[in-house]
Specification:
The protein is of the alpha+beta class. Helices cover 44% and strands 19% of the residues. Strands 1-2-3-5-4 form a five-stranded antiparallel sheet, covered by helices on one side. A three-stranded antiparallel sheet has the order 6-9-10. Strand 2 and strand 3 form a beta hairpin. This is Aminoglycoside phosphotransferase. Pfam families: APH. GO terms for molecular function: ATP binding; protein kinase activity.
Length: 268
């Protein structure tokens, strides 16, 4: 299929992480560069990414701040986008610059502002998802697991307002080119509460430098993090991080999940 879409394409670089089945390669064809993503048999990321491209990304693509979809097939777990120039923010000096976060906040506000729906069942589903993570292999201490199960059982399940979210909003999915921030990787895009896109930043970048949080909020606008919903979001994110990272063998990310759990539970 890729040969039909891009006849004569040649490999430029492999951008795959190697932790999961998804492959990401950069190719050249007829003088243009493209990014190709292919998912494994049980992968849902390609389907979600295609939906995001077709439904939610226009506020960014119209501004040249996200890659344009060229070809895609959910059935074949394959998509092609135009190459977007830039370097990843993660691991560069841009990750410590306030303007990077101000631009990221502005872009996130554009995504979230497109639509909103009220879901009476969201909180219950997320509680069940967290309990399911605790049923799978992980290295969370037994006493912590018992506390988490008891807490989750007592959590309220109020209606939630859901908006289009990126799902992994952090510097490893931001590019900078000539000082302009753009966004990549939409494999976790879905309807969720807006505050869920703050979770990765809160436990990583905002934690190490509060100035970055202030800049981000300056770009984004009003802070959506209502205290009780934010606490539940952080606990869920910590559980998912610790369990998922253990299952794929990412020990440093697993350690971050355990730190996230310790810190959010200690704060109550």
């Amino acid at each position: 299929m890729l040969r039909r879409w891009l006849p004569g394409a040649t490999l430029v670089r492999d951008h795959s992480w190697g932790l999961v089945a998804t492959r990401v390669i950069e190719v050249s064809c007829a003088g243009s560069r493209f990014i190709v993503k292919a998912g494994g048999a049980d992968d849902r990321h390609i389907e979600r990414e295609l939906h995001a491209h077709r439904t939610w990304l226009r506020p960014w693509t119209d501004r040249g701040r996200a890659p344009m979809l060229v070809h895609g097939s959910a059935e074949d777990q394959l998509l092609v986008t135009r190459y977007l120039p830039g370097e990843l923010v993660l691991g560069t000096g841009h990750a410590d610059q306030s303007d990077t976060y101000r631009q990221a906040g502005e872009l996130l506000a554009l995504l979230h502002a497109q639509s909103a729906v009220v879901d009476d069942d969201y909180e219950r589903r997320e509680n069940e998802r967290s309990l399911a993570w605790l049923d799978r292999p992980h290295r969370i201490a037994a006493g912590t697991v018992a506390r988490l199960r008891a807490e989750i059982a007592d959590w309220p399940t109020p209606p939630a307002t859901l908006v289009p979210t990126h799902g992994d909003w952090q510097p490893r999915n931001w590019l900078v080119h000539d000082g302009v921030v753009s966004i990549i990787d939409f494999g976790r895009a879905a309807l969720r509460p807006a505050l869920t896109d703050f979770a990765r930043l809160a436990v990583q970048d905002f934690r190490r430098d509060p100035r970055l949080e202030a800049a981000f909020l300056d770009g984004y606008g009003a802070d959506p993090r209502e205290a009780d919903a934010w606490y539940r979001t952080l606990v869920r994110a910590a559980i998912g991080t610790a369990a998922w990272a253990h299952q794929v063998g990412d020990e440093s990310f697993e350690a971050q999940g355990h730190r996230m759990l310790a810190e959010v539970l200690a704060a109550t």
